[in-house]
Amino acid sequence: MRTVLVIEDNKDNLKIVTYALQRAGYTVITAKSGEEGFELALKEKPFFILMDINLPGMDGLEATKRIRSSAVNGDIPIIAITSYAMSGDRERIMEAGCSGYFEKPIDPISIVEQIHTILGKTIT
Amino acid sequence: MVDSDRFEKLSNFGGIASVALGLYLSSRYSYLLFHSLVEITTIAIAFALFILTWNTREYLGDIFLRLLGIGYGFIALIDLLHTLSYKGMNIFPGFGANLPTQLWIAARYLQAATLIGVPLLVERKVDNRGIFAGFGVAVTALTVMVYSGNFPDCFIEGKGLTAFKIISEYLICALLCVALYLLFRQRRHFSGRTFRLIASSIACTIISELSFTAYVNVYGFANLLGHFAKLAAFYLVYRAILVTGFKDPFDLIFRELKQAEESLRQTQDKLEATVAERTAELRASEIKFRSLIDKVQTAIVLHDGQGLLISCNPLALELLGLSADQLLDKALIDPDWHFLRQDGSVMPVTEYPVSRVLATQSPLRGYVTGISRPDQDKIIWVLVNAEPEYDEAGTIVQVIVSFVDITERKLMEDALSFIAQRGWLAGADNFFDALAHFLGDCFEVDYVVIDELDEDSDMAVTRALYAKGEIVPNMRYALKGTPCENVVGRQLCVYSRGVQQLFPEDTLLADMDVESYIGIPLWDSLAQPIGLIALMDSQPFQNETSAATLLQLVATRAAAELERARSDRILRKSEQEFRTLAENSPDNIARYDVNCRTVYMNPAMEKTLGCPASEKLGKTPLEVPRINTVRVYQEKISEVLASGEASEMDLVMPDQGQGGRYHNIRFVVERQEDGAISGVLVLGRDITERKQAEKEIHLLNQELERRVTERTAELESRSVELKDSQRALMNMVEDLNEKTAELEQANSKLKEVDQLKSMFIASMSHELRTPLNSIIGFSSILMNEWTGPLNPEQKENLEAVLRSGKHLLSLINDVIDVSKIETGKIESFAETFDIHDLVREAVETVKKDIHQKRLELVVNMPHQILHTDRRRLLQCLLNLLSNATKFTMEGSIDVSAEPSSDGSMMTITVEDTGIGISEEDLENLFSPFVRLHATGETVIPGTGLGLYLTQKLLKDILHGDILVMSNYGTGSRFTIRVPINV
Prior knowledge:
The structure holds two protein chains of two kinds. Chain A is α/β, with parallel strands linked by helices.
């Protein structure tokens, strides 16, 4: 059972994602802020991280950068979730070190498949 | 010189060599003999030197000569003792070999000292007696020392040489080296040769000394060598002194002597030559003087104090036409021979120049006398000067009469006087006749011609023609081929003879039987050829030179006369022309003199005044009063005469009851050459008609002016109107500007509002998406029964929720895109991908719906790599596909793609068999919020933004375009084209 970390402040979204991931057999741990997510990422060493970009306080980009510069979990796949309106930030997202991204709204039916596509690209 | 030198050297060498050989042979026989010979030879050389030096001491300048000469004499004294005491000589018994050795050493010391002394003393003045005394003392002291036994031992029998002797030899060598060195330092005082000789001598002495250090036996080889060296040393010194002191100086003296003798001889030769030259000169001078007297172009006759003739030169005899005998009263003189007075009368003897000098006791100068000789027709005229020469008492001892031929000069004078007198007296033609006559008489020629050139220069007209003593009528002839042609405009030409042969074309020459010709051109004051004078004769010329001179004299005057005659003609002609002009002029012309008296009136004037000119001439206008206006007229003339300035006036002349006629009268001042006023020329013209015309013109002008004024006023009022409307226009422009400003303001406000709208839409959409996310997400989860099974009704309802959510989402997405495009905020993001994959992805999305509707899907898609915004292209393609799916009820959907022929564009076609688009809809197909009119009643859901957005994206982001072809009711085909590489 692989553990994945979802960092998301929107409860509904978090729930939808959790449904989909758990159904696919992952153990989901969640964080509601960038700071919390960063600590959990170091502590739990998840298989991958789903990171909402638009977070209160430390935003997703900042959190990604921190994780990337940490010694312990520097190479963990981080997949960003971004709202469509913010799509202008795509380049910034990739620059910050994300392995991939997808836009809201999240389709719970296809999300895991999409994640696997991105992971497949990242891992191979 | 070189040869004799070489011979001398050769013989010197031979002598020396034979002496050396003889000495050597003698040593073989007896060493003592050898020694004695060597020593005596050196002694002999030294004594010879001494004697030579001592006897010539007064003439020897160089100290070193005296020092060496005297010194070596004394050294030889010691050497003589040395020779005499030599072993085997037995002259000084009891001394053995020690004595000669001691003496030898003593001599060498002295020699060394002498040689050192030479360079040391060379710059000093040393008295001969001092030298003599010095050496005398030294030699005496040394000799006494040796013989008294006070000199150190030098040779001990059985032991050989003592240390003293050997050391002394070395010491002497050292001293000699010092001498050599000093000599070298002072070498500038010696000639090169002397220096070399002395230096060699010192070197030989050194060699000899070194040899003597080595010998053990006084008869040994070293001794032999030493003596040879010594001999050489003495010989060299001898040479030095002989050469420097005697041979060279004597050579010099003899050379100078020879030179003096030579120069003496030369001076003597020169002197003799000069004497000869002077004699020749004197002789030449005498000849010259004689020839001068004989050849001078002045006749000279010498008389004694009594007037008797002493001598004369040939010219005197020639001029006088007498022989020397006749002149010296030794032969008879023809009684027809006379001296003539200037007037031509016979001169009495008392008036002869010599008689006058003797009578007056004073010189006679510039006395003109004629000589009438029976042998000549012509009188020879001479200018005589007679100079008396006085003795101391003041009595005349000699009279020198000199005279020159002035016949020609007198001719010139005559010509000049002719020109001066006759020119003034005679009129033009008469002058030329007189001149021709004069020239003919003067030169005794047959013909004289004075020509004037015709205007065309090819012809000449004679102004005077003299033929054999007569003036004959003038004629005109062509210049061509005549000698005159060569003269005119060129130069003086003289043909002394044979002129007919030279100008065969000139028949006149033949007719006149002319043999000789002389012609001179005549020039006018502007240097233009004007004519010529020619003399011709049937005999060859004798005196052409004087003729030429005379012609030159008269030519100027003749030319001036010709020119004057010509200008007279011209003047007369122009006067005639003027008169014709004035007589026939319709204008009035009159002239008045300075006193206002009438000089001339033309017929027109006569007519105007109504009286003949004859009445008026010589009178003032007022003197023949006819009309009142004349007073004004005369006053004007007086005014012009006084002021000297031209004037003009209009005057009305009464005209037999016709109201008078207008006259315009101009008054012109006439001046003489010096500028003084000579009169007034009056030119009058009847201008009555003109006046009339002027009046009319004046009236017309007035009318014109009036109309111009009217028109101007009109224009001014127009101008005011124009100004008003211009002002109105300006106000309008200002209003417009204000409006524009307002509009601009409104526009910028609108822009702000637009911006606000876009921002609003953006943030609003975002806010709407969050709840939509939950709606779609959760309804999906429920629909898929992740949370548990649903009954069909629940499922159907939930499906409606999901569909509505998705529709709302796409609506929001489209609105956001449109607002972004409209505000220019959308950005492109180019990626590299295969079109095949992109189409597959799009098809995958709509596949489900297509299958649900049981439509056929045909995809014909090649692999092609594109570099462009993938997401936006996908969006466009999806839009077209979903439209096709939506609007097709049955049939098929075709998706195909192919690159353009040049490979720069990609064409993707989506074709369906759907409902199609009506023509009216086609027009607005790409406008926002357009919904199509469907065939049936079914309303097909859509945002109305799809195609608008697609077209916008293609144009603005993908730089492509979209085309549509549709048949209403049968289907549509959408074609998009995008660049393969953005």
